[in-house]
Amino acid sequence: MFNQCSGITYNVTHTSVLINNTVDNELNEWKENLDSILKKSTIQEDALKPLIQLLVHAIAPSKSYLLRHRDAVENKEDYIDLLLVISNTCTKPFAEMEPVLEMAYLKNKKVSCSLHQEANLKYALSKGHLFYTLSIRPQNLIYEKDDSVLPGVSENQLKEVKARSWEIFSFYLNNAQQAYAFATNGNLPYTAFAAFLLHQAVEYIFRGVLLSLNGYEKKTHEIKVLKKHLRRCAPQLLDIFPDDTEEEKSLLLVLENVYLDARYNTSFTITDSHFNELQLRVKLLIAKAVTITENVLGKAVLHK
Fold first, then answer.
1. Residue 245 host element (H or E)
2. DSSP annotation of 232
3. Cα-based distances in Å from 154 to 127, 133, 151, 198, 288
4. Quick one: which of 152, 13, 153 has its CA closest to 82?
5. Contact 93, 111 (CB under 8 A)
6. Among 37, 61, 197, 199, which is least packed, fewest CB within 10 Å?
7. Where exactly does CATH 1.20.120.330 map onto the chain?
8. b/e 260-291 (16+ beta carbons within 10 angstroms → b)
9. DSSP 3-state assignment of 114?
10. Across residues 139-145, what is the average pLDDT?
């Protein structure tokens, strides 16, 4: 339940919406702080700064955190995640704040934002929730309206949480690797069933990453749905099945259809080109998921 404080994620990019010139000293100080932080990011500063100004001015969060998800595998542009903490004294429903987030929505899938209720956040931190434990840290803070204190986590507690999370991920990783091995060993009589196993490998990886890095289990077999939830904790994985061109949409549709059709539709077939491409993508997905999870949890700690 911890990561369901809002369930809202919107993609944003360049926006011409700016707050007016009658800003107070507090906001001016925040803008100066933001300038120094953004200079360290690969995201285009002019695309991000107006957005954050808009969100802080319109939503008035008690705190704001900026997270960068780096793609250590392909060295691509960072994914940016803006976490807005809403004070317990705020009586406005999250649903009424959604239009502000919708105003920020344009084209850039590298940036998203979400709302998190302060009481829920404090409870999650007190329980050692991994995502919030790693995210709600001083180095990620870009705006603070009040001096309210969020719970901290000791190094021993953090190690325990990481170890438990790696154990969860390893379970799903093992299942994914076995499904991939059976699908690609060439001994299966039907290509359709092999394709089904590839779907299972993708599902295992997505579920494992989502549960181990975000503490959230989404009970669905739809890859598109799992992808949406992964945006919070491992957006780098979305690049493997991007769904951003007609060709990519076609490949993802094949993968989605495999789950039912490969087992129950006697006339279902899959082309060699689609099957071979899925094999390559799933192999990359498994390897990249391991790298991302090790980077988040600490490879040296997990394998010593």
1. none
2. T
3. 12, 10, 10, 40, 29
4. 13
5. no
6. 37
7. 155-302
8. ebbeeeeebebeeebbeebbebbeebbebbbe
9. strand
10. 84
Interval 40-71: pLDDT, tens: 444 454 567 777 777 777 788 889 898 888 77
What type of residue is 248? Answer: E
Three-state SS sequence of 46-98: HHHHHHHHHHHHHHCCCEEEEEEECCCCCCCCCEEEEEEEECCCCCCCHHHHH
Q: What is the pLDDT of residue 159?
A: 86
CATH topology of domain 155-302: Four Helix Bundle (Hemerythrin (Met), subunit A) (1.20.120)
pLDDT score recorded for residue 12 = 28
What is the value of pTM for the model shown? Answer: 0.77
SS3 state at 196: helix
Residue 189: what are its φ and ψ, rounded to 5°?
-70, -25
188-239 confidence digits (pLDDT tens): 777 888 999 999 999 999 999 999 999 888 888 999 999 988 988 899 999 8
**pLDDT surpassing 70 at residue 288:** yes
Q: Does the pLDDT value for residue 11 go beyond 60?
A: no
Residue type, 147: D
Report whether 139 contacts 40 (CB < 8 A): no
152-186 as b/e: b if 16+ CB within 10 A:
ebeeeebeebbeebbebbeebbebbeebbebbbee
Length of the chain: 304
CA angle 253, 259, 263 (to 5 degrees): 130
